[in-house]
């Protein structure tokens, strides 16, 4: 099993007030596909949910960067290095080797909120970075329903409503 290092830089706009924290970038190694930016796997509903929340089309990385810059939302993942077990991108198939070493530096920027993109991310953060929750008490740490289509506890429409309720307004 090859160790994978996170392929993307943290996306941190100068006006960051919010952070979206995911697990690790997806990869479809059966098809030899690596993705070009956060949440690019076509099966993941994230960008489609964001399009509905903000009533916009996000067809390019530049359009996603522009929207998140306007909103003051940064994006990064909690995992920096991992092995994939079962040749899978599922969170429970990631053998974590190293967490993102820049998380505290990002969170220390007086963020209003950190959004966890799944229960897995929330659990990993609370288990391994609980001191940051205590240290940055003005920052809200908020769970967002997973954008994975495998998360069937909520319909896509219910996820849109929850995202609209929790994410910042334009």
Q: In a few lines, what is going on in this structure?
A:
This is DNA-deoxyinosine glycosylase. With 170 residues, this protein is an alpha/beta fold. Helices cover 31% and strands 21% of the residues.
What order do the helices and strands come in, and which of them pair?
Blueprint: E1 4-5, E2 18-22, E3 27-28, E4 33-34, H1 46-54, H2 61-71, E5 73-77, E6 79-84, E7 94-99, H3 103-107, E8 113-116, H4 119-128, H5 130-135, E9 140-143, H6 156-166
Parallel strand pairs: 2-5, 2-8, 8-9
Antiparallel strand pairs: 1-6, 3-4, 6-7
Protein name: DNA-deoxyinosine glycosylase
InterPro entries: Uracil-DNA_glycosylase-like_sf (IPR036895)
Core attributes:
170 residues, alpha/beta, four-stranded parallel β-sheet, three-stranded antiparallel β-sheet, 31% helix, globular, DNA-deoxyinosine glycosylase, Uracil-DNA_glycosylase-like_sf
Account of the 3D structure:
This protein is an alpha/beta fold and 170 residues long. It has one domain: 3-Layer(aba) Sandwich (Uracil-DNA Glycosylase, subunit E). The chain contains six helices and nine strands; from the N terminus they run ββββααβββαβααβα. The strands form three sheets. It has a four-stranded parallel β-sheet. Strands 1-6-7 form a three-stranded antiparallel β-sheet, with no helix packed on it. β3 and β4 form a beta hairpin. α1 packs across α6. The radius of gyration is 15 Å and the shape is globular. The protein starts with a strand and ends with a helix.
């Amino acid at each position: 099993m090859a160790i994978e290092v996170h392929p993307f830089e943290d996306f941190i706009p100068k006006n960051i007030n919010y952070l979206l924290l995911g697990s690790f970038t997806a990869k479809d190694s059966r098809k030899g596909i690596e993705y070009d930016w956060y949440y690019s796997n076509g099966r993941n509903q994230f960008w489609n949910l964001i399009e509905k929340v903000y009533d916009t089309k996000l067809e390019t990385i530049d359009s996603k960067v522009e929207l998140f810059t306007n909103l003051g939302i940064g994006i990064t993942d909690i995992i920096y290095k991992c092995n994939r077990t079962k040749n899978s991108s599922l969170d429970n198939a990631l053998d974590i080797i190293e967490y993102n070493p820049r998380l505290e530096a990002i969170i220390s920027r007086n963020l209003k909120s950190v959004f966890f993109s799944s229960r897995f991310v929330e659990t990993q953060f609370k288990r391994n970075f609980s001191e940051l929750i205590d240290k940055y008490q003005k920052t809200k740490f908020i769970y967002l329903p997973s954008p994975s289509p495998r998360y069937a506890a909520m319909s896509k429409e219910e996820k849109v409503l929850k995202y609209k309720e929790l994410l910042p307004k334009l």
